[in-house]
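Subject: Predicted fold for Ig-like domain-containing protein, 200 residues

User T.R. writes:
Posting the sequence so we have a shared reference for the thread.
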Amino acid sequence: FLLWKGKLSIQISCPLQSGNIQDYNVFWFQQKPSKSPAFILKHANNGKIDQSSSFGARFVPIRDADTNAYVLQIQKVQTDESATYFCLAEGDYFQTAVSGSGTRLIKPESSDVHALCLVEDFYPGLIEIKWSAAGKDITEGVTSGQVTLNGDGTYTTSSILTVSRDFFNSVNPIQCSVSHESSGSKTERKLPTEREGEVV
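User M.O. replies:
I've generated the structure tokens; pasting them so everyone works from the same file.
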């Protein structure tokens, strides 16, 4: 794409491979070279939009029922918004979603895979999310989201793991572990690999 500062509005489409887009929450992220993915917004399945303070109202989420796709509209695109944009869909509590290389503006294709570990509706707001592969902790390529207060007094947070596609497919299992410090509970979720046909 050619970007004219302040002139062009674009739409980035992210088709859902299975299921109905109306049933899922969708998260949009932006990734610039050599930087971790940055959270843009969450478009909940009830229509509510939770937007990061780092991204303004020019970033508008749309659900396109005709193509069963999530769409991110960026109005009046700025020059420094050349990046990779990708979406992650989340359905049930503590569901892990995996995306492919995303949609790139200007930049060449990426070989990275991004995994989202989302934890919702917990209380109190003290929680720890860790990533591991083959039993060893992963600390590089991890972006921790903020713990946000929900309207009902519970909390939501997330963590994103960015790894190379080769690493993702060669190490089994890659796992997200969540520990709720106050209750002492721990939950683990393994990520499917592309060989299992789960990467969208």
